[in-house]
Every structure is written in structure tokens, then in C-alpha cells.
Amino acid sequence: MPALYYFVGVPLEKIQHEWAQNEPDNKNNAESCLALHSDGRMSDERCDEPRPYICYRPHSDVEANVCGTPDPEYHFESRTNKCYKFHTSPRTFKRANFACQAEGGYLVIINSEVEAQVIRDIWIKYPAVVMIGPFWKDVAYVGMYNWDESEDWTTIHGQWLQEAGYAKFSPGEPNNSTTGEYCGAVYRNGMFDDLYCEQDYAFICEKEPSYPPVCDSDSPRPFEPAICHNGVGQAQIQPDNQMNEIMKTQTSNVVI
Ligand SMILES: [Ca+2]
Ligand SMILES: [Ca+2]
Ligand SMILES: [Ca+2]
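ok -> C-alpha cells follow
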């Protein structure tokens, strides 16, 4: 049985929960996400199976920073009018992509020389000594991918690199040196490398300051902090009886 399950950083052992019969079983060693059953019990499931899902936002004051998120690790960069977060916990490309999306952002897409400089400056704040664990600390995943596994690299938003505004690979790259280097990364010098997607590396998320909106607010956005008050969030609140019906009929994914 896998030792650890987390809800966005909180060990499951600290959350009241009950497993469904014979769960968790990590069937075929491929079940890394949790699902909530209609009876309130839980199981581990494959992450790539589509299911209904439930979003949650606390019904209390939420203070969003200039980046439109309560996450203090997103920092606004005036040179690009975007926000960035450097993740020092290494992840595979797929999980890194998931993590950025879960935070309302995306794996960083370098659109210009200016943004490449921004990334170089971010790297300076993260020398290898601040990153824990045995992984290569001079590369970080970015939002580009070799979609058709040839020479055609695109951003995760579907643009060719030239079209996106920046396409500088490090000399000798991409080299597909470990067969399957279809995922993009950036060196400390701001140049790209291709990496094996299943290897864990640091990664950088980019976020639009105004997206997703945390709440309605009179504060001028995106460059002013906003406070969301009770009841003004934009989330669609399901009436309890409606939610109960959903819970009776469907199994739903829970964030992992
Ligand atoms: Ca299972
Ligand atoms: Ca960008
Ligand atoms: Ca490479």
C-alpha cells in the first residue's frame, strides 16, 4: 500500500477519511489520484480517467495578492506583466503541468528575450543549495512540448516556438539524448533543453495576474490586491439538495 496520500499538501492522515472496501489498492500500480464515493468513502483511482469533480473555495474572506491568488510564492514581474512561481519540489512534466494548472497558471512560456531575462533572474534566487533532493538542479520544466516527437516544438498553448516569440535552444539541443526527451526545460542561462518527461525536475509556473479571478471586487485589478468577502465569490454555489443529488449518483475526483 502506498505510504502517503495528500490533499494539496495536507497529509491524508490529518483529514478524517474512510476507505472503500479493499481500497486503496493502487491497481496495476497506476492509481495516484483519490476519488470520493457517493457514500463518503474513498478510493485511489487512475488520474487519466474522466470523472465529475467538485471545486471548493472557503466561504470566508480570501486575500488575493497582486497575482490574483492567495499563494505568496507567485511574484509579479513588471517587465512582462505576468506572475511567476518557481517550484523547487521536482515533478515529472505531467505533474508539473498539473500543479501549475491547479494554481490557476500554466508551465511558463517564454515569449521574448525580456521574459528569458526574467527567467534568468528567477533562477538566480534558486541556487542548487535551496533545492532538496537528488535531482539535476540546473534545468526546470517549461511549457513546451515536442508534440509529434519530431523537430516540431510547440508551446503547451499550441504555438510554434518562433510564433510564441522565443526559440533559443542551448547549443547541441534538442538532442533527445535519453530517448523520449519530448518535454521542454530551461537552463539557468535562459536557453532551452529537451528532457525525458518522466524524470522529476524543478519547474516554473506563469500566471496571468487577473486570471482566474478569485472573486468579484471593486479593487482595480490586476495590479491591486483584492479582498473577497463572504458570498461574493464567483464560484457557482450548488444548493445543498442539488449537491446531495450529485453525490448520490456520481463518484467524484478530489484534488491531489
Ligand atoms: Ca483503487
Ligand atoms: Ca510568457
Ligand atoms: Ca536534451
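DSSP finds four helices and 15 strands in the chain.
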